[in-house]
Structures are given as C-alpha cells and as structure tokens.
C-alpha cells in the first residue's frame, strides 16, 4: 500500500519557516555627542537614557523591550548612548557597567538602573512618570 501525505501538513524542505516579525518602529534616538546629549535631556521633561555597546549581550537582549517602551510612552524621550562611540558622555555620567539606564526629570538625573531586567526598567519608568506629573 502506498502511504499518502496530505499536502497541507508538509512543506517543501526549501520553504522558510514563518517567524513572528519584530515590532516595527522605535522612538529611541541615538545620541552622537555629549553636546547633543545635554541639549536633549535639558529640553525634555522626562528622559530615559540607555548606555550600551555593540559587544554587550545583555544590551542587545533588552533592546527590543526598550523599543517597545518607547512606543508605549510618547511623553518620554528615549535616548541611546553607545559607550564606544560617545566616550565623553559615558565618562561624564560615570558609566562603568552595561547596560545602564539613567532617568532624568527636567534635565536632572533622578535614578539609575544597571542591568537588563526589563520589568524593573518598566516599573522604574512608571515611577519616574508619576513623580514628574505629581501623581
């Protein structure tokens, strides 16, 4: 007896597997200089700054979550500083571990998180927003 294979249950070896596409878009701005960094944190009421490097695994793993937070929080300025390309800003902010997240209200540094625990970052951002708005 010949075995029958239902076509919709099999796919040719060469067909690509479907993978969920990542969320498109981000509001995270890459900062190119210390002058630009200072201008951006001063002109925005709430800013979250991610310090990272291309070689940092945890930085890469948390990046999609930060992109998602940026889309969910249009009232917050999201900045990204590559410590290898912007050493002056990293030095001025005393960054010695990656990833590091700094939070600013009205240009003043109010909080810091070291690490890639996205839930901790998300909770801290909510807390900063409550402080900034008085709620």
Automatic annotation (TrEMBL):
Pfam families: Thioredoxin
Alphabetic keyword roster: Disulfide bond
CDD domains, per database record: TRX_family
All copies of domain Thioredoxin, residue ranges: 1-133
Transmembrane segments: none
Region (Disordered), start-end ranges: 1-26
Gene3D superfamilies on file: Glutaredoxin (3.40.30.10)
Name used for this protein in its record: Thioredoxin
């Amino acid at each position: 007896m010949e075995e029958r294979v239902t076509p919709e249950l099999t796919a040719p070896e060469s067909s690509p597997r479907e993978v969920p596409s990542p969320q498109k878009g981000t509001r995270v701005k890459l900062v190119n200089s210390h002058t630009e960094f200072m201008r951006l944190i001063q002109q925005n009421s709430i800013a979250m700054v991610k310090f990272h490097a291309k070689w940092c695994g945890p930085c890469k793993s948390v990046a999609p979550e930060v992109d998602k937070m940026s889309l969910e929080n249009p009232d917050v300025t999201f900045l990204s500083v590559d410590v290898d390309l912007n050493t002056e800003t990293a030095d001025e902010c005393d960054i010695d571990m990656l990833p590091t997240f700094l939070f600013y209200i009205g240009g003043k540094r109010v909080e810091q998180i070291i690490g890639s625990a996205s839930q901790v970052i998300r909770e801290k951002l909510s807390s900063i927003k409550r402080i900034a708005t008085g709620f």
